[in-house]
Amino acid sequence: MVNVKELNPDASSQAAYGARLRSMREARGWTQDQLAERVDYSGRHISAIETGRKPPTHRFSRCLDTALGLAGTSDSFERAWGEIRNGSLLEGYPEYLGQEARAAEIRLFDVGVIPGLLQTPEYARAIEEGHVKRGTLSTEQASERVASLAERQAALVRRTPPIVIVVLDESCIRRPIGGAEVMEHQLTRLIEFADQPDTTLQLAPYSIGERRPFNRLVNVLTLPDRSVMSYVESETDGRLDREITSVLPLVRAYHQLQAEALSQAESVAVIEQLRKGTP
Length: 279
Hints:
Elements: H1 13-27, H2 32-39, H3 43-50, H4 58-68, H5 77-88, H6 93-100, E1 105-110, H7 121-134, H8 139-154, E2 163-169, H9 170-174, H10 180-194, E3 199-204, E4 217-222, E5 228-233, E6 238-241, H11 244-260, H12 264-275
Parallel strand pairs: 1-2, 2-3
Antiparallel strand pairs: 1-4, 4-5, 5-6
């Protein structure tokens, strides 16, 4: 007799996903292999999802919804996948993305890495491949992150685009990601970004030292109704803040940062020199 692993749907959202999948499959009288044929995956893959040994992907969830007749419903596995994905993101970040997609003005600052909105697909892929090599993401999860970033960037292509102001710590352009060719394309992307009519790009050079007010990612959004919110992120924590008493100091600090940073023309010149391989 085959031993069937007991499932605990209360253990996590991923466990609940697997338990519901098994329940719906068994209700239809399908074996794992029979379901696998309908979704174009292997029976072993179905087993791994059901027992929580492998996280579901967006593509897999959509295939399940088609096979089970759940596409577009409130009970869809695609919706459950979204809950799992958002649950793995830093607190406040999913909500921040929704606000960013409708913001009238976006101000970004980052240290050590180009902000997602300005990343090329190759640069983003290199970062996610680093997570795969360290074992913190699966290959499919990494691919989905790159695809999600493309969706985030596309959300800003509107009839009236937002004003996007970016200040990069110098470390962002000097930290090599993905090799020389990837970095060359990424630096070219920054130069193209600076040339757009609704954007501003500045570098905060190492020389400003202690006058740099931020040591981590800081984003400030101005919404169409002129309300302002901030999103601040560390390695393990993210915080979306609407309280004007705590957001305004960040806005002031951002203005001070811009005053210390290089002008856009000077910044582009530095990036162009680095792109050409000159110090």
